[in-house]
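User: Um, what's this?
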Amino acid sequence: MTLQDELDDGLDKHENLVNGRRDGERAEFGMHDLSGSSLIDADFTDADLRGANLNDTDIRGPKGLPRKFEEDEED
């Protein structure tokens, strides 16, 4: 299983949690190297991204990112 496969699976489970569906699980990506991955249209509501390496990560159209993170990305 590739890193992208693991991320997609984790985000699917996280989306289930956010939407109150069965088998939901909080995304725990804190302190992980996610560089170079694709997180397009992901919902990060209550996800743990603290300390994650997001260099060169494609994060277009995200939902639920903390405002501070969005401001950092614009700099």
Observations:
- The chain has a mean pLDDT of 88.
